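Lab meeting minutes (informal)
Scribe: AK
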Amino acid sequence: MESESGLPDTSVKAGRKIKGLSDTERADLDNWPRPDEGALAEDHRVLYLNRKNAVKLYVSGSSAKTIVDNCGFTLSHVYRLITERCLCPHPDGLIYGWRALVPHVHIRPYRRQRPVKPDESGHGASGALQAVLDLHPALRKAFEKRILASCPQNKLGAVKRPRQAHWKWFLDELRKLGYEQQNKWPFNTQNNGYVSVCNYMNAVLDANPKQAARVLGGRDAAKKLIAGDGVDRPVTKAFQRVEMDAHKIDGRFCVMMPSLTGEHIPKIIHRIWVIVIIDVFSRAVLGYYLSLGREVSKDDVMRTLKMALTRWQRRNLTFSDKAYHDGGGLPSGVSDDYIGVCWDETRVDGALAETCQHVESALRDTVGSVLITPKMGFSSRRSKDDRPFIEAFFRTLGTYGFQKLSNTTGSKPEEKQSRNPDEMALTSQFQLEYAEELLDVLIANYNAMPHTDLGYRSPLEYLRFVCASPGTVLRYADPNTVQGLLSYRKKCRVNGDLKQGRKPYVHFEGARYTNEILQQRFDLVGNYVWVVNHLEDDARVAQASTLEGQQLGILRAAPPWHKLPHSLKVRKAINTATRKRRGSIN
């Protein structure tokens, strides 16, 4: 039908009723998924646009002559394009839509209809594997289950199965069905269908990426695949969220132990941990602590928190006078505005979560921060990719720091080959004090290093920039509360006897304590008082108060603990060794 002007009539009449399209949400062709038309080759794009125009004319109700004259397609052909291609479901859950009109796009997988009879060169067996699996659905299910199977946790089994093992298993199953005796595919080919089976395994793994990552890369790869990228948990301001984690330094160091002869004997330290707190928004390291324990303890975490909330000062270095970069340091050391500044959220990984549960109250009461662990936070998994900023910092710390030294163990076992870091640490006497100085310099300089993601500003520059914005309000911790973070509190009974002239005193962690005030308080004999010692302070002194909170002043330890400075940890170790020796003598 033509219009009065002689041109084809493409006006919309009543439209055509198409099963599965009319009167549905798919009827609006403008909402159909579409390909990137600019990415198509010129000949493909011309054919695609011709098909697209034909579909539009057909749906609008144009006549058969109009469609043939404009596009060259018959009505039946265009109808099949719509029903057999455009309306078919796509793997992404939508319909193919306009994507189905791109030349050479396969909508349905190939299914073989004729018997498989390959020639001498092996050709003529296309679709043979799918035909076999279509005949035996149970075999398909068992084969896919075997391909996607991984070794269960805490059970003995094969971690990885090679492709040949799957292929041989598949051949054994076909032998049970009589395929080899009947000389059917794949036993009538030169390689027994090895390439086809491998391609099928690849297709099964690609269709199940989560399980495939566990099979091919192990649990870490599976966790990495499902790890978030931070889009769903954005950080919009400084000190909104920090990441805290512990990292084992890749190196060997020694400490000089004094001997009875007055000499110093070097002793190797095999494990050193650094616990770091980093602000997510600015990438600035707020605090750190170097731990010598076999594992990170709650006291180590508390020391890290305290350092992040107190003033940082540059060290007097023994290896260089110009190691610190200009403007380098921790935020609390470059400006008084950041001394004691608090944050809102503290994110840790699964390894540190159990330890941090003990300091959760300190984070809440002192910092006003919520502790986010893998079980409480954004995910129930443990993955390095859930804490990308602190993991990136640890990589930088290793690459530009300790891994460049000759006493490094390297980040991988093969990097230790042809070197003896233990011997190098003893020969060079690279002591722990040097490692502490080097770590402080590396972290201070990291905060002054420009970052591409920060507009080529350093973390300290970016922190000053965002905190200077109007409306920015920082929260600060109470200095007295911060000083009490590393404290050990214990109820102790007051002893004494007025009749015998024994002045009041208390026993606290293996030592006797008293002072002038307590010696006058015979009314407290037989009652309990609080005795507090700050773990970073000298254990020769402790603070005391009554249960009602009345201060009793500073208590001092009695001999022999009054002479040399020591900590409660050292005293406990000495008392333990003394008891063991006393027991062996008896």
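Next up, CB showed the second protein from the same session:
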Amino acid sequence: MLNSEGILPAVIHPIRELARTLICSTLLLTACTAAGAPEAPALSSAMVVTANPHATRAGEWVLQQGGSSVDAAVAIEAVLSLVEPQSSGLGGGGFMMHLAGDTNDLAVYDGREVAPAGASPTMFLDDTGTPLPFLAAKNSGLSIGVPGVLAMLKMAHKEHGTLPWSSLFAPARKLALEGFEVSPRLASFVSRYNGRLIPLTPEDGPMDAYHYFYDQAGEPRTRLTNPAYAKTLETIAEDPDIFYRGPLAQAIVAAANTPPRAGTLSVDDMAGYQAVKRRPLCIDYRQQKVCGPPPASSWIGVGMMLGLLEHTALPSGNRHDDWAIIIAAQQLAYADRDQYVADVSQIPVPLEGMLNKTYLATRAKLINPKKAIDSVTPGDPWAFEPTKTAGATFGTDTTDDQAGTTHFVVVDHRGNVVSMTASVESIFGSARMVGGMFLNNQLTDFARDPLDEDGKLVANHAAPGKYPRSSMSPTIVLDEDGDFLMATGSPGGNSILAYTLKTLVGVLDWGLTPQQAVDLPNVVARGDSVRIESSVASPTLVETMRQRGFNVKESSGENSGLSVVVQKPTGDYLGGVDPRREGTIASVIAPGSTPGSSSTH
């Protein structure tokens, strides 16, 4: 029997059920307190939603000590770097959306990796001018950008932290020393991709990852300790600048410059990195304001999708019509994203034009819920820029950024919100380790072939000091009074935009709870194909979209990892966590309340 959303009955996800048995019992015996009690009144509850139970417990512990959402984010990411190394880590980067609970001010903290000074548009081409195969590019020093997440967390903590920086790494350090069970998801990546994601011989590359995951008999380890990472945490807890200017930085540079396919990362590149605080991009959607980070993030694609939907009949009352409209909106927004979005500090990007309501209304006229668009091509947002001046003409980019990413949401007891997406790019990043951390392969988010089929330079080509385009799209929604309503986001490579959109439509348009919105089937429409998660969607939905002319490809599973928090009118919070990963939700009662009053599920 199908429910009202056209979804199959709830599916038991074995990985998630097994993960629940791994909720940490070894964490957090040492407490720390802030240098002074905050004066602002605390709300009765707070919430943490992450993709891993260890990380959720770390964030919960920080909030129980009176810490802020940013404090919790530092502790969470330090733990994820250890227990979910296939997705994110201190050797990678990320974007943080932050909402100040007392003023409702929004800010973006940008910790995206940057290319070294030695990068060039042709860095991923072989001697014949052919792009390197993805795995050859990934498992190389060429792919390693200057890690940015630690600098970003340091910047955010300086402005919004309440607990001492040095205290926030205790949960991760304890886990690294005492050990933790390998989660089902991590174990599946180690076993399924043996020989592809990490080098198995010295000729393939440095073998640190192999020795970390496999014992002397060549069997995958079921329990891991990481004393090298514990030492790294001890070092950066005392002085995070050492990561960029000390022995750690030198070791990262050495790893990037090790054959095969050595990169050009230098100590000057490391020392010169700076996180950036930016103004968010926002779009008014019906009665709400929806905001996310500017490029090099692709969040503008999410904003465009919402802007296109606002000019349609959604919600129509006919869910099949709604899905057809959503699919067409995705296709139009992805076409513009692929054409125009790149590092805005080096490439002109028509940001105002892409979010211009008149432009979006014009594009929305192409949408017909009963019939697919015959041919989806980019529009001309430059015509809607205030200066009316066209930017450079770039080629069409088909870069397929990978899904080694995580997302989490924290709301603290004073209403401060963090929606943060972090990544090492692909699974296990570059597969090169330093100080117990995996180093990113984010530079493969650049177009490996800098020219399109017509010989035009694409906007997202590699260049010195340039940010590679990212699909990371942490999102915060304000209600009609400007107060916090919702935070969402997901991992999933290019599909992040579609995954995130699903939760926004589910909550804001269809009136679903955050968990119901997360449980909706994933539908991803980029280019001329439409992936529908047939293991969740009803057969009727799949067949109806085919009848309307969409090129449907059924997907047995999707790599989303949504974390969502919605504030109810009562001021309490509802969470949603993706059953496709190992996430958990913690509802945290205010510090000083009865012990054991927090709940994790």
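CB comment: Residues 1-40 have pLDDT under 50 and may be disordered.
No objections, moving on.
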